[in-house]
């Protein structure tokens, strides 16, 4: 049985988790192979995890069953969330998934969807690639706001400044609690930008 939990939460993720209410219901958007979902479940949170790719959802779902972790893994596009209003205490969009929602309209749409499915005073945490760091460290892979991290592919992440992330959050109706650079596992990994927001209506 492959161990999908051999990686811990990143340093910045662990810091953000300290904001979450105990035993909170968490929606993990863009869960991939489930690293964050399994880590958060083991910390006592109730997890619903979604991804657009069946290739990652099915193995994660199978591992959850085999390891007796009660995590709901769902295949969905992530842009239009298949949940009722006021369902979750926390929503996370980690692993820089937010940068895969191309264009401002899509970003505001998904953030508004997060707002909709959050309970009153619910929390949103999302991350993105740091534009200033990528400009300095990997300018050859940057085309405007597009960061092409993998060779010979059209896939890219959009990069951000903290002010852009704050602006998007506020346009979607959130109160920004913090938006800053965070450490991945060690300094040489480079920083990640992340925002922690609160539903304010």
UniProtKB/TrEMBL annotation:
Keyword Ribonucleoprotein: no
Domain of life: Bacteria
The protein's name in its UniProt record: Class I SAM-dependent methyltransferase
Assigned keywords, A-Z: Methyltransferase, Transferase
Gene3D superfamilies attached to this UniProt entry: Vaccinia Virus protein VP39
Protein's organism: Clostridium yunnanense
GO molecular function: methyltransferase activity
SUPFAM superfamilies found in the cross-reference section: S-adenosyl-L-methionine-dependent methyltransferases
Start and end residues of each Methyltransferase domain: 26-122
Record GO biological process: methylation
Entry keyword annotation includes Methyltransferase: yes
Coiled coil: none
